[in-house]
Amino acid sequence: MTSIQSPIGSGFSAANTTADVISSIDLTGKNVVVTGGYAGLGLETVRVLAGAGASVTVPTRDPARAEQALGGISGTAIETMDLMDPVSIDAFAQKLLARGEPLHILINNAGIMANPLTRDARGYESQFSTNHLGHFQLAVRLWPALKQAGGARVVALSSRGHKRGRIDFDDPNFTARMYDRWTAYGQAKTANALFALHLDKLGEPHNVRAFSVHPGGIITGLAKHMTQDEIRAVGAIDEQGKPVLDPSKNMKTIEQGAATTVWCATSPKLAGMGGVYCEDCDIAKGLAADSTDHLGVMPWAYDAEAAERLWALSERLTGVRFIA
After folding, report:
1. What is the dihedral of CA 104, 106, 107, 110, to 10 degrees?
2. Which is catalytic among the residues 124, 185, 277, 302?
3. I need a labelling partner for 170 at 20 to 30 A (CA). Which of 99, 197, 246, 267 fits?
4. How far apart are CA 277 and CA 301, in angstroms?
5. Positive or negative CA dihedral for 283, 135, 131, 189?
């Protein structure tokens, strides 16, 4: 396999923030969708993109909470959607497509992490359903608007958590194997990276490029299923329970964490590129399967054959087929 995972020397680093990467970008007239855009990294992403002139739509299953979070940010709109409810995803997409407008940026930011075993109405494991299948369906349904843009980007939030699990194509929903919340999270994050890889292959002829992102270690609501001891064990908080901030060790502020998402969504340095896993505002290095490096991307998360296989599985599980 030929690796496309090699840093390009972006000029940014782990310490750079959203303000740094957006400073010379004008998004006036651009339409954006950000899932999970009313808290944590998503809220910062919405704030920055709207501040650069974009019109940002935030789908949410909690409109009241979203309205409170986004109330002071002009250029934003809120619509109802639940990533574990395929009917609501279709309804959201139909409403967006009815506007007749192009979609220039889609950011699949929402997610859950390491929760106890729960399933959606179809019986699908919730981390795989929310983090991957819901976003897969959303992107496929919004494809006409992405294609209409004549130059669009899709950013999927993955994580270094992809190192915890490959895709189990025989049992992706833990119906036969014992459920492990971290294995399930790793599988979902690997799926996010493989989704971007294959969407980029399909989208390149239409100038729709896709990227996956590891934002870094940031304490947000995503960690709500972790105990304080677990968070402390990974070095994210100190003995007093305060966040450890050291971007050189992957421990970032929200503004630093969202910077890679914003960079992938807007940087002119990525023109003509796609399908890559990024971190620290650059393309991440590809790793060998036995690597113990803290950062970088494992080979199973940028394997084109696995990406195509996951795409076929996702079409089968959702009943949603991609038509270019």
Report:
1. 150
2. 185
3. 197
4. 8
5. negative
Q: Using one digit for the tens of pLDDT, what is the confidence trace for 59-71?
A: 999 999 999 999 9
Contacts of 20 (CB under 8 A, 6+ apart): 12, 259
* Alpha-carbon gap, residue 77 to 218, rounded angstroms: 26
The residues with which 81 forms a beta bridge, in sequence order, are none
* Rounded CA separation 40/260 (Å): 14
Please enumerate in sequence order all residues whose Cβ is within 8 A of that of 267, keeping only pairs 6 or more positions apart, or say none.
10, 21, 25
Residue pLDDT, tens place only, 204-257: 999 999 999 999 887 655 555 555 655 565 555 567 667 767 787 788 999 999
Residue 298 and residue 15 in contact, taking contact as beta carbons nearer than 8 Å:
no
Please report, rounded to a whole number, the percentage of residues in the chain having pLDDT higher than 90: 86
124 is catalytic: no
pLDDT of residue 225: 55
Residue 233: per-residue pLDDT: 54
Q: What is the SS3 assignment for 80-140?
A: ECCCCCHHHHHHHHHHHHCCCCCCCEEEECCCCCCCCCCECCCCCEHHHHHHHHHHHHHHH
List domains and CATH numbers for the chain: 18-318 (3.40.50.720)
CA 283 – CA 211 distance, rounded (Å)? 9
| Cα distance from N-terminal residue to C-terminal residue, the chain | 26
Residue 109 burial (10 A CB sphere; 0-12, 13-18, 19+): buried
Q: Which two tokens stand for residue 272?
A: 């003509």
Does residue 70 come out as left (phi exceeding 0), alpha (psi in the -120 to 50 range) or beta? alpha
The confidence score (pLDDT) of residue 227 equals 59
Mean per-residue pLDDT, 251-275: 96
Q: Is the pLDDT of residue 3 over 60?
A: no
The contacts of residue 245 (CB under 8 Å, 6+ apart) are: 251, 252, 253
